[in-house]
Amino acid sequence: MAIEGDLAQMGAFLGAGLASVGMGGAAIGVGNVVGNYLSGALRNPAAAAGQTATMFIGIAFAEALGIFSFLVALLLMFAV
Amino acid sequence: MAIESDAVEQELELAIHPMDQFLVKPLFGGGHGDIGMFTITNATLWLGITVLCAIALMVLGTRGRAIVPSRSQSIAEVIYVFIYKMVEDITGKDGLKYFPYIFSLFIFILVANVVGLLPASFTTTSHIAVTATLALIVFVAVTVLGFVKNGTAFLSLFWVSAAPLALRPILALIEVISYFVRPVSHSIRLAGNMMAGHAVIKVFAGFAVVTFISPAAIGAIVAIYALETLVVCIQAYVFTILTCVYLKDALHPSH
To answer: Which residues cross the membrane (chain A) (predicted)?
Structure first.
């Protein structure tokens, strides 16, 4: 019985660790958005100011998916 | 050897658990006991402080109505104009009717985040209960508004007329799913960012009790605190800008 509980807990911890790998994907996505914004902004600085809001919306959408993996990790740590 | 490990254990006990700061505790009655619907907790206290600070900033700041603004008046004016332009740019002129709500949303989240950065304070926006309430109000309000303003034409939001006909049912399914995931990502983005940032500060505070790495740990706390100050403002901005985007979808559902 005790061993089963330990195994379940180990599985939850392992799963939480694996789930947080997903946040790396969000990091790549956010980096892509900002990098492409910056390279566009350096080519045409006059148009850059008008697009910052769009950039933040893009960051928010890219980040949302990383946050879902964070949520899965939190659920495994504290709710399962 | 045994003494050494005892000392290490004692040191670890002195360190605070990084998630302890998010515990909701009753203010009266020794910090433990049942939490009911109307128990006054530290969350209640800091939500109250947030509202008072927001009112103080906006009401006391603009009370003088000076032509040459004082410092607090210019802060209030800069924030007001910033959000006003954002609502106007994203939702258009007809979205300005909803500006007061969007502005109160922004100022509440901003002040709650900044107040939560104070040492030994409680970050109310790190709790999904708080952010989910804000996000659900926006979600329900925007959905109702979309149907009231456009009737069944609001459903054209899910029927992408620019796509080839064969693709449209698949796109409709994806659009419906992404529509209902909105309040989830909207609330967890704010709560997750606040919780993660504050937990990281506390983790480095835990390292600071170990003597030989404490200078590096304290330097890291300073750097992460600076980063958090930036994140706090950006997350309030992102929450508000997404509210504007959702509102725009409700007012002009055609793609």
So the answer is: 12-35, 55-79
